[in-house]
Amino acid sequence: MHFFAIATLKVKLKYDFESIKNNTELLTQLKSELYSMTKKFKEKKKILGMLCVCIGYLVTQAQWPNFIEEIIKSFSESLETIVTAFKILKELVRTGKDDDVVISDNRRQRFYREMIEQNAKVLGFLDKWVENINKEKIPEDTAPELKLKFLNGVSYSFIVDP
């Protein structure tokens, strides 16, 4: 049941966002509900993936200042929620490049600028997370879908499998 409801929402957000874009109260409630649902369905990979896509579509099309900072703050509670944050950030990049998402070129360009402006926050989040990982021993099976590699003693790369 949840799967079909979320699939319907995903399509609505991708192709028919115009019908809700001016309803700030509804958008705020929708965003909060999506955040809550990602935590509720963290064990259900398909549902979690679709929820992350929904958040990507919502953020790509809506105009939220500091959206990356908000995502990082909302999903910094535990290793599991941090993995979800990385999945959402990955979807933000993907949905921003998706030409099938019905948004104006002007909004798409503003979204790209917002992503670039907030890039340092993502890197800071990643750096802090890696520092915390290094401080405590975490079992390898805690987050098998997240592979983190320390590169050249300077930078990090991460891959979040779909």
How many distinct folded domains?
Answer: 1
The average pLDDT is 77
Write down how many β-strands occur, each being a DSSP E stretch of 2 or more residues: 2
Q: Strand content of the residues, in percent?
A: 5-15%
Largest sheet: 2 strands, antiparallel
The CA-CA distance between the termini, in Å, is 22 Å
User: Cα-atom Rg, whole angstroms?
Assistant: 16 Å
Quaternary form: single chain
For the biggest β-sheet, the strand order reads: 1-2
Structure description:
By secondary structure, the protein is mainly alpha-helical. The chain has one domain. 65% of the residues lie in helices and 7% in strands. Strands 1-2 form a two-stranded antiparallel ribbon. A hairpin with a 3-residue loop joins strand 1 (146-151) and strand 2. It is globular.
Summarize the structure.
The chain has 162 residues and is mainly alpha-helical.
Question: Helices, strands, pairings?
Answer:
Elements: H1 2-15, H2 24-40, H3 45-61, H4 67-74, H5 79-97, H6 105-117, H7 119-135, E1 146-151, E2 155-160
Antiparallel strand pairs: 1-2
Q: Can you give keywords for this protein?
A:
162 residues; mainly alpha; two-stranded antiparallel sheet; 7% strand; disordered C terminus
